[in-house]
Design brief:
With 725 residues, this protein is an alpha+beta fold. Helices cover 32% and strands 16% of the residues.
Length: 725
């Protein structure tokens, strides 16, 4: 079980001290929250007053992060770092880190309490030096980056600095996971490189930038950018050069130290030992004479300033925010909408999908793109090789090598985006060319696998008529994915908290689809894709089959095949209008696939609500998320008890009365041809009436199964069957 194994591992293998929960007082006062849990003040019989940080673990991946946090804490022994005493567990209330208690709160509270008048510069210098000492210990002696340094997690105890909250810290010798690379913390303290590019990996120089903001707050005695209340706007302005201005009375040497930490180019920022040395040797005289207003962005951009009024003492590098070709402001890192639109337009005559609506969608996406990788391309089919069926998905999904690759490398000399091919991608066949539905792939970011664009080819039939037919495929970013249905079959049994974690992510995806007023209409375990890393941990969950989506309030036509699919809601089968509650019924069927013989009563009751015949009585996604949150946060005893009993998978037991019984036969293997298409090799493509044909013949390299039989053939006339059209 999750809650037992990690705890014993932490104690036995990492030497973490266990503090019995009975040693902790029942009286606990909440003091705030850390990266992965809430923080309380209490008393410990063997230590005295301590802070305990409650940890909520929803899934195995969070257990791993928690253990890493324990390991980091166990390695750190320094007077400038909050002391880690051990771990404790209560069977009913959860798990805790037991930490040193900082009596005077965090640095921001400390600054606000004393204010400018009583906060002498000698004291400010002393605290700044102590912060730098703590960060130097992390960087130089432990090779750790904090990644979330700001004035709310720098604590004060007995007048001395204590750096805390390593829930987001990272040992540089470890592997940087996708979760740890996300944007966390308070925006003014985050490295602009990270705000500009989410894939940017935070490093020691990112901590230096954060330290610069901390030093500025010590000098100004207020939080940065108090007038900026919209996070996204503030992030963009910071990327465009927005910075706080030095306040009157700041020692000039101190000002020079923190402004050097603010350099846009990370390599231009000092090392922590340089910062510490300069702080120790700095003089408090002379001081800066100026006002205390922060740099603001004007409504009318001025050439060379990216629309921001920058004071002379804080001139920044503008190469990253101004286009060298036309002096326009970048809408994203190295993305000039004016220049890119012109390049796209000049290339319009060089390609066509041979479908006017699809051409217009691609052109629309390119002209409206405000950053790279947010538009579609038409990619000729001869750009792809080594095309193979994805065995874990099969119906219409293929891996391939894209020879040129996408435009992802910025060339500063030519001021253009260069391609980085060859690159592995996924091809997915399109059932239809409904342009409104294809637009969803632009709107629903992080719900579907990223779509680079489209490709296609024309085939000639083997009949006397020699008729032609065009096939279209989506070009998707490569991800090691497997259908949820297959994952359940292969991994069962797995813990209830892992199942709930997966289900919660699925509901979040469905919630985002419903916010667009679309209904998926084909929501089932075969349309949910899980991305796996090399260690077979589930990192991301995606929704496929957006081709089936319709607007809420419209009619959804079901063919005879779909009428037998148990995930289709009763109102759709009756020919009534669809609503978001139609997807909720489908979700209820999916929930049934996650249960076993020992399903907890609370889960069963929620599932029954989703499967109610009356759509109005079914919960919506918001209700579901709230209910699932109580399942995981409270660590309900029903789920722990279910994990301790022997499980039988759903396909080996009868369903409850609402659904007819079924077994493994409802997950039949998808038949695949065992050889390429010999009859098609000799088929010439008809001349295209357009200047640019879809593609030369994709064969013989098109289909390369792993275990083909040379004597088998595949009838070209039945090519539709191969794509499951």
């Amino acid at each position: 079980m999750i809650n037992e194994n990690w705890y014993q591992t932490a104690i036995k293998e990492y030497g973490i001290k266990e503090i019995l929960y009975k040693e902790l007082s029942e009286k606990k006062k909440e003091k705030g929250s850390g990266a992965f849990g809430r923080v309380y003040k209490t008393k410990c019989d063997s230590i005295g007053t301590v802070a305990i940080k409650k940890i909520t673990i929803d899934a195995e991946v969070e257990v791993i992060r928690f253990i890493k946090e324990l390991k980091l804490h166990s390695q750190i022994k320094h007077e400038r770092i909050i002391q880690f005493h051990g771990i404790s567990r209560d069977e009913h209330k959860g798990h805790y880190l037991v930490l040193e208690y900082a009596k005077q709160g965090d640095l921001r509270e400390f600054i606000e309490k004393f204010g400018k008048g009583e906060f002498k510069w000698e004291e400010r210098k002393r605290l700044a030096i102590q912060i730098a000492e703590g960060l130097r210990y992390l960087h130089n002696e432990k090779n750790i980056i904090h990644r979330d340094l700001h004035t709310k997690n720098i604590l004060i105890n007995e007048g001395n600095i204590k750096i805390s909250d390593f829930g987001l810290s990272k040992n540089l010798n470890g592997t940087m996971s996708s979760t740890n690379n996300g944007v966390f913390g308070m925006v003014p303290f985050i490295d602009p490189q990270k705000l500009n590019q989410t894939k940017y990996v935070l490093n020691k120089k990112s901590d230096i930038y954060s330290l610069g903001m901390v030093l500025w707050e010590i000098s100004s005695c207020r939080e940065p950018f108090p007038g900026e209340t919209i996070i996204l706007d503030l992030s963009l302005k910071i990327c465009q050069g927005l910075k706080e201005k030095s306040v009157k009375g700041t020692p000039m040497e101190y000002k020079q130290i923190y402004t050097s930490c603010w350099e846009i180019e990370p390599n231009s920022r000092p090392l922590i030992e340089e910062v510490l040395s300069q702080l120790k040797s700095m003089s408090l005289e002379p001081v800066f004479e100026g006002d205390d207003e922060y740099t603001s962005c004007s409504p009318s951009p001025s050439p060379g300033t990216s629309g921001c009024i920058l004071p002379d003492d804080l001139i920044i590098q503008t190469n990253s925010v101004i286009c060298k070709r036309c002096d326009s402001k970048f809408t994203d890192q190295n993305w000039c909408n004016s220049c890119e639109s012109q390049r796209f337009q000049e290339d319009f005559s060089n390609w066509t999908s041979e479908n006017q609506s699809l051409d217009e969608l691609i052109q629309y996406s390119q002209l409206s793109a405000t950053k790279n990788n947010t538009y579609f391309e038409w990619i000729k089919f001869n750009q792809f090789k080594d095309i193979k069926v994805i065995k874990d998905i099969e119906d219409g999904f293929f891996t391939a090598t894209w020879l040129d690759g996408s435009r992802e490398l910025w060339d500063d000399r030519s001021q253009q985006w260069e391609r980085k091919g060859p690159v592995k991608i996924i091809l997915r066949r399109l059932r239809c060319l409904n342009i409104n539905k294809l637009k969803l792939y632009l709107e629903l970011e992080n719900i579907i696998i990223y779509c680079y664009g489209f490709t296609g080819f024309t085939q000639v039939s083997s009949t006397k008529s020699k008729s032609t037919k065009s096939y279209y495929l989506m070009v998707l970013k490569y991800a090691n994915v497997v259908k949820l249905r297959k994952y359940i079959q292969n991994k069962f049994p797995f813990s209830w908290f892992e199942r709930l974690s997966i289900l919660k992510k699925i509901v979040e995806l469905l919630h985002n689809i419903h916010k667009t007023n679309y209904v998926h209409c084909n929501f089932h375990s075969g349309s949910i894709l899980l991305q796996k890393d090399d260690l077979n941990h589930e990192l991301e969950i995606y929704v496929s089959d957006l081709d089936f989506c319709v607007y809420s309030g419209e009619f959804y036509k079901t063919d005879e095949a779909n009428k037998n699919n148990r995930h289709i809601s009763p109102e759709i089968l009756k020919g009534e209008k669809v609503s978001i509650k139609s997807d909720i019924y489908s979700l209820g069927v999916l929930m049934r696939e996650l249960v076993s013989r020992n399903d907890p009563q609370r889960y069963y009751e929620l599932m029954q609500k989703c499967l109610d015949d009356d759509p109005e009585r079914r919960p919506d996604t918001k209700d579901l998320l709230e209910e699932l949150h109580t399942f995981t946060v409270s660590r309900n005893s029903q789920f722990e008890a279910a994990d301790s009993r022997e499980d039988v998978p759903f396909y080996q037991q009868p369903l409850f009365p609402l659904l007819p019984p079924f077994n493994r036969q409802h997950f039949p293997p998808f038949p695949l041809p065992s050889s390429p298409f010999p009859p098609f090799y000799e088929q010439p493509l008809p001349p295209s009436p357009l200047s640019q044909p879809l593609s030369p013949s994709p064969f013989p390299q098109f289909y390369q199964p792993h275990d083909e039989n040379e004597n088998d053939t595949y009838d070209f006339d039945n090519f539709d069957n191969f794509f499951n059209l």
